[in-house]
Amino acid sequence: MFLKSFNFRGKRFLINIMNYKIIFGFLSTILAVLSFLPYLKDIFAQKTKPHIYSWLIWSILQTTGVLAMIAGHAGWGALGLGVGSFFCIFIFFISFKYGTKDITTSDTICLVGTICAILVWVFLKDPLFSVILVTIIDFAGFIPTYRKSYVNPQSETISLYALSAVSNLLNFLAIGNYSVTTALYVTSLVITNAVCVFILVARRRIIAKFNDMRKYKFN
């Protein structure tokens, strides 16, 4: 009788956990959509010109990461990233009309790296190595944004990175089977986006304080 009761409670506990993971998965998806909407609005208003090469890279990166997570049985944790992949691909296509097409050496290096990750995924059937490659390349892709955010913090939208960080944190909580393959890429996205938010907020405060001091000095 005791064992039956224990098994019943254990099953209920697992069901409750799965329900929470489904909720986290849907919340991360909603935040993923909300994080892209202001950016899309600026594109169609021609205030922002997406880099066609960069969005091609991010489309490949995120799609590869999602496929590897699905192969690792990430469950609902891959849902928000999957939606993010859709937006990346969509922005890549509209970049032909609304975007800028200048290509840099760093873009080319990142693209070669993503192609290597795809080849590993297709031919070696090694999702772990693919996720490691994607994580490293994605971090390298953030470095120019970090530099630009430090020099000119007003040139970036904080909400995009803040909502992306929270969305990916929810993706992490929604993962059904935790492993390096399923958790590494999502964890890196939380960190890289959070670092970008920190740089933007800190630099804006420092610059605002410096400008106030200059006004006080000259007045």
Q: What do these coordinates show?
A:
The protein is 84% helix and 0% strand. The chain is mainly α and 219 residues long. It has one domain (20-218). α2 (52-71) runs antiparallel to α3 and α4 (105-124) runs antiparallel to α5. The longest helix is centred in the N-terminal third of the chain and has 43 residues, at 2-44.
Structure described in brief:
This protein has helices at about 1-45, 50-70, 80-100, 105-125, 125-150, 160-175, 180-219.
Features:
219 residues; 7 helices; 0% strand; globular; disordered N terminus
Span between termini: 83 Å
With helices defined by DSSP (H or I, 4 residues minimum), what is the helix count?
7
Shape: globular
Gyration radius from CA atoms, angstroms: 20 Å
Strand count: 0
Largest sheet: none
Blueprint (SSEs and pairs):
Layout: H1 2-44, H2 52-71, H3 79-98, H4 105-124, H5 127-151, H6 158-174, H7 180-218
Helix pairs in contact: 1-3, 1-6, 2-3, 2-4, 2-5, 2-7, 4-5, 5-7, 6-7
